[in-house]
Specification:
Helix content is 77%, strand content 1%. The chain is an all-alpha fold and 452 residues long. Among the domains are: 78 residues, no CATH class; 153 residues, no CATH class. The protein is globular and about 70 Å long. 20% of the residues are buried.
Length: 452
């Protein structure tokens, strides 16, 4: 028998508090009533929506559970500041972004499509929101009174999924991601003294000093996150490789292949964490001229009295058949050379087949993860990146590993069985280690407080 919101809401909220997701003294009792209504709404939808086609009800169930989780999170911990900043950036970027021609999709984009794509891009650029939360915000935007359900929940879900997979989504994101630093900093300036923000911003000297202060503060946080990423990811990968070696590689080589190579085992354990540490260690902070660029962009937004910059989304350049074939051939060449070189080196060190396969998988995943960390480290960088011949070569021969790593991460996220295994092998050591450090830090803090 299906439970009601009245039965679920209170124990559900208490469980969230016990798990540490929300502080006990900041959630009002009235919030539980709102959670009850929300749960009842989604229970009603699930019970009264007929299956449109085979398997559609299961997909709808998963989607509605995501929407329910996002709505409950919004009730218990409203993100007023974040949503206001998203709306503000969306409003200005809609005015500044122009879609030239048919831009890849072979038809003109409507104004409504453009506004939705800018809205999605701003959420991804500013706060790296995931698809369920963006879907929920789109649902709110399309249906402000979500308590009155749309006529066809299936078509609503399909349209939102279509919005998230728009052909121009990446192009909108790249523009918004390049401009998000200025909105971050301006949001910090306003949040410091909301009631006096308009008066303070009207003084150029005050605004510039505030920009410098909050830029340095954010830069310090970025450096701290990168340092933590280097430490935690390196330790996590090291522990994971040891577990995989003991659980899979050693038994396979010893009992299936009939021989065991300590040298290849040591290299297979040491190289992945060293690679991750090296990738993160080579990250450099933004150049000094970046601060001047940030100051200029924030002032443009705050005063809004200068000529507005226009960011054009242009049609993709059409490649001829010959040129396209050359590009594909070069990519295949770099792919074969990159993987072939690694396989040749591993073979020289007498790696077994399974050890070689696991090494290549880890190498690809680490390369992809390193690129993602480097991207996050550049979140304040508004300057154009200079690329030389060495960078071109590095990018060309690392791209195959990045693409394979991206594909592997998506495949593992798609299949639950594999995801459970990967979580067990990859995430558990990291989570246990991180949890231990957090508990130890809390313990030390409590003991220090007892001294005073």
């Amino acid at each position: 028998m299906q439970k009601s919101g009245e039965e679920i809401a209170e124990p559900f909220v208490f469980e969230l508090i016990r798990a540490g997701h929300f502080p006990n003294d900041r959630i009002e009792e009235t919030k539980i009533e709102e959670v009850k209504k929300t749960l009842n709404k989604y229970i009603f939808l699930l019970e009264n929506t007929p299956e449109e086609k085979e398997g559609s009800k299961v997909q709808l169930y998963d989607w509605l559970m995501d929407m329910a989780a996002c709505e409950i999170e919004g009730i218990l911990s409203p993100a007023f500041r974040e949503k206001a900043l998203i709306e503000y950036m969306t409003e200005l970027m809609v005015q500044r972004i122009e879609v030239a021609g048919n831009a890849v999709i072979y038809r003109s984009i409507t104004q409504q499509e453009k506004e939705i794509q800018v809205y999605i891009a701003c959420q991804r650029a500013l706060f790296k929101l995931d698809s369920p939360l963006i879907s929920y915000y789109l649902l709110q935007k399309k249906y402000p009174d979500w308590s009155k359900t749309p006529a066809n929940i299936y078509s609503t879900r399909e349209q939102i999924e279509k919005d998230l997979k728009h052909p121009l989504a990446d192009k909108f994101y790249k523009i918004c991601e390049k401009q998000d630093t200025a909105y971050f900093i301006l949001g910090d300036v306003i949040s410091e003294a909301p009631l006096e923000a308009q008066k303070n911003i009207s003084h150029p000297e005050f605004l510039e000093n505030s920009i410098r202060k909050f830029y340095q503060s954010r830069l310090k946080r970025v450096k701290s996150r990168v340092a933590r990423a280097a430490f935690y990811s390196t330790i996590s990968i090291f522990i994971t490789k040891i577990l995989l070696a003991l659980a899979i590689e050693v038994p396979f080589e010893k009992y299936v292949l009939g021989h065991f190579n300590y040298q290849s085992l040591g290299l297979n354990i040491l190289i992945p964490p060293v690679l991750m540490f090296f990738l993160v260690l080579t990250i450099r902070p933004p150049r000094k001229e970046n601060l001047d660029k940030v100051i200029m962009e924030v002032i443009k937004i705050a005063y809004n009295n200068e000529k507005r910059d226009v960011y054009a989304i242009k049609p993709a350049r059409k490649r001829g058949i010959i040129f396209g074939a050359v590009v594909v051939a070069f990519y295949l060449f770099t792919f074969l050379l990159s993987f072939g070189t690694i396989i040749w080196i591993l073979n020289k060190f007498n790696f077994g087949i399974l050890s070689m396969l696991i090494f290549l998988m880890f190498f690809s995943l680490i390369t992809f993860a390193g690129v993602k960390i480097r991207e996050r480290a550049k979140e304040l960088d508004m300057t154009e990146e200079k690329t030389g011949f060495l960078t071109f070569l590095t990018d060309s021969f690392s791209l195959p590993f990045i693409r394979v790593g991206k594909w592997l991460s998506r495949q593992w996220a798609k299949y639950n069985v594999v995801l459970v295994l990967v979580t067990a092998f990859l995430d558990m050591p990291f989570q246990l280690f991180t949890e231990f450090l957090e508990h130890w830090r809390t313990f030390l803090k409590e003991k220090k407080e007892e001294i005073h």
